[in-house]
Design brief:
The protein has about 180 residues and is mostly beta strands. It is built from no helices and 15 strands.
Length: about 180
């Protein structure tokens, strides 16, 4: 039995940067495209999902005596066409690109729900030098360009804050 009560591991398979895990009570799709940060991209409950198989963007789930369910994985981090599959949103601050940068770099992030978002830039001394975002934003992926004009070469930190979530990453400006 696994933590969380009642579910027993049945079978797993790998395909398209996802680990598909079938349990006796549900199915999970785990995004392992970044091995340092695996996370559950979606799941389906309510039936036995033994022996999942993946080919191209299709996931085949033998469902015990109920037959076969076919799901389509259309997106990089979610499973689509079946309205019973729930995608689990998350908060995530991504590394800026390019890094190091000269003049401009793009900072992207993902928020799990409608939230007041702050994205601030700090110098190496911890002094806030710019606010890039200070507004309520919808759930989903967002990006903003940091214009380094007027900034000196060096290491800068960017911080994403939304309610209880806070993450900081660094960027290197080379002129």
């Amino acid at each position: 039995n696994l933590p969380g009560g009642g579910a027993t591991y049945v079978d797993l398979t790998f395909g398209n940067s996802f680990l598909y895990v079938g349990y006796n009570l549900y199915f999970e799709m785990i995004d392992v495209s970044d091995p340092a940060d695996p996370h559950i991209a979606g799941y389906r409950r309510g039936y036995q999902a033994s022996g999942p198989a993946a080919r191209d963007n299709l996931i085949f789930l033998p469902t015990g005596g109920l037959g076969l369910t076919v799901l389509r994985n259309d997106l990089i981090t979610s499973i689509g066409t079946d309205n019973h599959v729930r995608v689990i949103p998350q908060f995530k601050l991504h590394q800026n690109f390019p890094n190091p940068f000269n003049v401009e770099t793009v900072i992207s992030y993902q928020i799990a729900q409608l939230s007041h978002v702050q994205l601030n830039i700090y110098n190496i001394l911890g002094q806030k030098i710019k606010t890039l975002v200070n507004e309520v934003q919808e759930q989903g992926a967002h990006e903003i360009t940091l214009d380094g004009t007027g900034l000196s070469s060096g290491i800068y930190f960017y911080e994403l804050k939304t309610g209880k979530f806070r993450e900081v990453k660094s960027a290197l400006l080379i002129k």
